[in-house]
Amino acid sequence: MRRTPLTGKTPKKTPAVRKAPARAAKVTAVYHTVTTEQIAVEAYYIAERRRRLHLPGDAQSDWLEAERRLRS
What we know:
Elements: H1 36-52, H2 59-71
Helix pairs in contact: 1-2
């Protein structure tokens, strides 16, 4: 039997530690709410670019494009 040098006693056997099985990471979806103000600002920038480059379009198409960009 093996004795510890400091106490002279036989060390107690510790139970084996079992690892818990690996679990799949929990995925939580984070949804970003798009406000009408954010859409309006994005539509403004789209309209400015469209006018500067003399591209066809109107305010409604700018708004829809802004919504699409922000929600994707």
